[in-house]
Amino acid sequence: MTLRDDRPLAEPGRPAPARGRRLSRALEVQEAVKELIVRRGLTAGDPMPTETELMRELDIGRNSVREALKALQAVGIVDIRHGFGMFVGQMSLNGLVDELAFHSRITPQDEQSHLAHLIEIRELLENGLAARLIDRHGGADLADLLSPAREALEQMEAEALVGAVSPETDRLFHDALHRPLGNPLVGRLLGAFWQVFHQLRDELGTPDETPEYVARKHRDIYAAVIAEDRDAVEAAMVAHFAGIRTRLARLRDD
Length: 254
Fold this sequence. Notes:
Layout: H1 25-39, H2 51-58, H3 62-74, E1 78-81, E2 85-88, H4 94-106, H5 114-137, H6 142-145, H7 147-162, H8 167-178, H9 184-199, H10 201-204, H11 211-226, H12 230-253
Helix pairs in contact: 1-3, 4-9, 5-9, 5-12, 7-8, 7-11, 8-9, 11-12
């Protein structure tokens, strides 16, 4: 494979891009590096070819290789560990988190904010995940499967008695609730939502709910799932997110 300027842009078996949509040189090199990773069957954590090997295989200069690697590192595709080498990166949603948090800050207050849309998406996602959990494991002993969620809930209730429920315990409960589905992307997506809310905690202000109320709403979610009651799950989720919607409304009013 080569990236000489006179080579065709399209690879064999791929349609050429429409006229006027040719990739920039920088993006072209990035795509070539990604194609090399796929072609070699590399997966997250695998060592990558060195800069010199990439220069030779792609027939491009060192500066172009370094520019492409830095761009791919920024989005988590490449992991550069100084003194150890380069590796295929692990999946990360950090870029998405930063972008959502930033745009939530600059959205005009007279419009529905990105954060409000994000809350709606998370509520729909968690409702759907709970329904899928009931569909897959209904009739089985959900209490055993969800024992980590129950433990997180008990920790939450203990924290509520002495002060405030920590965000980490809240996140742990939701992670544990959906873990039996065995979908590794669920935890990443919910974690990304949690990080956005965490970054915007100062803008959102102090919660109106007491710690005991927060713990009770999570107990309602858990109990509804254990009872395999989809309507109760939906009602509990609505109540769970009501507090942050109230804070958003107050922020718009202010």
